[in-house]
């Protein structure tokens, strides 16, 4: 069976993917808007210099919690979904004991270490003028590192039950909304750097408590089934044998996303770090859709591969990739074409980063064309391959940043980031093609690319060349290209398997009508 052949199984898989990703995609849109709103509040309220200090501290925290999570989020997702699909092996309770205990221990160690090293890091990142503020923020955020890591792990376990709702409600919407409210209030009140960091991090504690409550409910409502359990030591060996390589891979990947902010701050200035953060987060907002699709498809890949359904896995991957392109390419094309006008919203200081956005958007177009390829590689049991891929990407990022930032400034950092992202996507693509013969290209892929380029690409270039990149032109672009794009997507909905969403909507409307009768 080829991936483009429609059967009852492929229709069912597309429906499952639509059900798993619909809520997540809505959450990603909300999360992207909330994230950009927070950046706007910080940059407009604190200015570029002080805003850069805040973003440097956040970059440190985000790298730290992923390192401390040591891949337990992915491990709990994979092994929980496998446990529910099979009748033997470790149960969910065993998995939680094995997965969360080491995260807590490592989190405490890293928190203490971070607090001790805060003055040294503060001097390196903040310089003479901002060292004290950076040090204070790092000390405060270090206290929340264990909670942030446990939150990631617990949410990974909830996704193992086949639901994205806890992740969307807490990680995509709840926490960013609370951070926006708390940090916005702090900026208006003019609180100290320590309080600003504490209020931002407090949202992680509240999100963690909600995630734990949600996981308890999922465990209670899950039907109990008899199984042949294995000893705890054997469970730990299998779990961490898979997870530890994934831990390093996750740390390397988040390092690519945030380490450049720290390097820009250290090699240039906090002001440049703020400008670079705004430029990169514009592109990262589009990657939230990538994460949404990837998190929704993770348990499907794991379950299908565990049962030996390679053809169905290939089909799900191609459907998910086409949907991802349909969602992200319009945004990336718009950012690439209208970068000066978009950055102008944050202030005149940020318009100089237009080439940065253009470079990053170009690499994002290429990267998203491979879909959730690294997720597929990991769910196929090749976490060590993913580790080496991520290591290669991080090494390229660091080396190129150290070479290019002194000579090219922000554009050099962007070029280093773009090259490392290409490496992170091309390597797993080549590996999965060799391993299972899987690739994203097919009828759906070309349809999604054609619709995006034919509308948001061509219309955008025409408007930019004739009318410029002002806010009014961008508004005209969104309306005109959006209308043309919607018409094409509707016409090609069957080629893109979007009828799965229509069926899901009809079922939900029917359920609401039935409940009201």
Can you describe what's shown?
- The protein is an all-alpha fold and 517 residues long.
- The protein has one domain.
- 86% of the residues lie in helices and 0% in strands.
- It contains 17 helices and no strands.
- Helix 12 runs antiparallel to helix 13.
- It starts with 7 loop residues before the first helix and ends with a helix.
- The C terminus is likely disordered.
Q: SSE layout and pairings?
A:
Layout: H1 8-69, H2 72-85, H3 92-143, H4 145-159, H5 165-189, H6 193-221, H7 232-267, H8 270-306, H9 310-337, H10 339-344, H11 354-368, H12 373-379, H13 383-408, H14 410-436, H15 443-467, H16 471-491, H17 499-516
Helix pairs in contact: 1-3, 1-4, 1-5, 1-7, 1-8, 1-9, 1-17, 2-3, 2-4, 2-7, 2-8, 3-4, 3-6, 3-7, 4-6, 5-6, 7-8, 7-13, 7-14, 8-9, 8-11, 9-11, 9-15, 11-14, 12-13, 12-14, 13-14, 15-16
Q: Rg from C-alpha positions?
A: 23 Å
Whole-number count of domains? 1
The main pleated sheet reads as: none
What is the structural class? Answer: mainly alpha
Cα end-to-end separation:
44 Å
Helix content: over 70%
Q: What would you call the shape?
A: globular
Helix and strand succession? HHHHHHHHHHHHHHHHH
User: How much strand content do the residues show?
Assistant: under 5%
Low-confidence spans: pLDDT under 50, at least 5 residues?
Answer: 502-517
Topology, number of strands: 0
Assembly category: single chain
Report the average pLDDT across residues: 82
Helix count? 17
